[in-house]
Batch of 2 targets.
Target 1
Amino acid sequence: MSEAYVLDGKAIADGVIEEVASGTRALVARGVKPGLATVLVGADPASQVYVGAKGKAAESCGFYSVQHTLPANTGEAELLALVASLNADPAVHGILVQLPLPGHVNAPRVLESIDPRKDVDGFHPVNVGLLSIGEMGRALIPCTPAGAMIMIDKACEALGATLAGKEAVIIGRSNIVGKPMAQLMLSRNCTVTIAHSRTRDLPEVAQRADILVAAVGQPEMVRGSWVKPGAIVIDVGINRVPGEGLDDAGKPKTRLVGDVAYAEAARVAGAVTPVPGGVGRMTIAMLMANTLEAAKRAAGA
Ligand code: GUN
């Protein structure tokens, strides 16, 4: 059996960014510049990196981009007031409040205060509902599953496969990935199973999958023996695990692995996403795509 087709997240994400930049130029020519506002509360280093990367991507797409950085002790009322001002700002089409928020803030209350039309994360219950009733043209879809879906389409193209009628198994039932991923696969006429930590005989369930999506946050949990020969395997996990030796500063090295044992899976699958360089590259690209989409809808374009 030959090795699986490797889905290159960087190349696919770069293609999405190019399309967004070109769509932005067309919208700007009509007098509308897409705007993305990010909100970061506190100084969590990982969140700072993510929010910085989102701002940079927004600028590279030709958006108006603004970052609001607030101290960790910011009160909920102040945060709600900031969101209200961004809701009312016609230059802002997308609002992203970086998670996690500090413990004293009611995160669902803040996310639900975002105008659903500007909710480029797709976390607002209105967008969750629109996705679940199949109103894709009105919903904003969470970025990671939307990006995974594009990779699945690329895999189908490469393998000459079609999705309708296929068995899709999603391991993980989070609101951010597992559940919206299931809705997307269902909208593409797959037969969908959502497996999770209480699923009986998970390897057997996974082996049914023509499309297997792993989104559990367990390093290399999905083994090669769980993969049906020729399946499309999408690994959403990003887990940092101990590596070998010491880095330049004398600290133990770490490395990133997915939820799938990559080398094993690649020997069996038809197509597979690597970690790093797979689905992770797609999330920010889809955030840009959602922001352009929100701006186009606001402009009636
Ligand atoms: N924190 C980690 N991932 C995300 C994301 O996709 N959106 C937001 N808002 N916060 C996050």
Target 2
Amino acid sequence: MPSTLLTDASRRLEKAAQYAPISEDATERLKFPKASLKVAIPVRMDNGSLRVFEGYRVRYDDTRGPTKGGIRFHPNVSLDEVQSLAFWMTFKCAAVNLPFGGAKGGITLNPKTLSKFELERLSRGYIDAIASFIGPDLDIPAPDVYTNAMIMGWMMDQYSIIKGKRSPAVITGKPVSMGGSLGRDTATGKGAFFVVQAMMQKLDKSPEQMSVAVQGFGNAGSAIARQLFAAGYKVVAVSDSQGGIYNRNGLHIPDIQQFKQTYHKMQAVYCRDSVCSIVDHDNVTNEELLALDVDILIPAALENQITAENAHSIQAKYIFEVANGPVSADADAILEAKGISLFPDILVNAGGVMVSHFEWVQNRSGLYWQLEQVEKELLERITKESVTIWKIAHQHEVSFRTAAYIHALSRLGEALNDRGTRDYYNS
Ligand code: GLU
């Protein structure tokens, strides 16, 4: 395996394979993405010039169902990154028992440099380029880093134009007016909150005892910070890509969110009526935030934030990975040796794809759910999988990450075996 991200992914696979009832054939199959597509997307810019962007879509494994995974717009998007993220989606969908395989897509760019019109032409151009690679029974994209419901709406519309029929089930995370599910926008944060609650209950900890730092204040990070704040956790630090704020007595998350939406920057604020005042706080860098002396650390930004270089400085007792892949495989070992419990991305951030599944079901049945139903199903399902992963970790005396992989691998292995492997034919 040439790349570091995918090598990390495969190291975790091999570790879990020691404990899961999975044949060698199946492990071998899972080391390689099923299909990878690289496309060029020509876009007419507002000033009349033509710019060509590079995009990808990777379908990693479809043994358990059509492939599923988001599309990110980010300058770091590369084939290696998209393949690794597609690998994670395969395990995430299996870990929480969705009838999906794993996929991912992306375009290499900084979307903040494009106008809304350019962004729409780019989004539609991407679908023109990958239309035959996706479909409601084949591969179903969704939002990821720097993409949102508006972009998913354009993409679904473009796919429907190409196919000559309305096809809402091809993409999830759409605006509610275009067949999106209620509760999808906050699903990743909500799901992560349910996992934190399930684990704190197992650990016999109450919210008031726990201080929290959240790295990343995007869709998932801000949603979980808000949930934790509302439940009584003391959220002492939050950050965005520009940097973070820290107040040891706790921050008022709804006010910070309101301030950030209005001024596009981060300050510790208290807003009363229409007046906001800036509260005493320290500015921290993202690096400093990770090293704060808190109970719970939540990396909710990008991958590879905690690596062998800075893992030694982590003081938190528990890490909940809301981002995909924020901790490298080398860092895993260091954190484990320090006695830090890490709850992995493929469980913690699975709420997003779980509600994406509900959206796909609603699109196909034509019957739309109330928000209460969405949240009830999400709570029940993610709590059940969290408890099972907790049990596997204790049964095999392994980390929660390895336990989650064992859990996913058992389901994947069974499906791969039933399709026909050497073990299957020998039995
Ligand atoms: N991008 C999200 C993830 O990484 C959601 C994927 C989806 O809903 O398909 O899990």
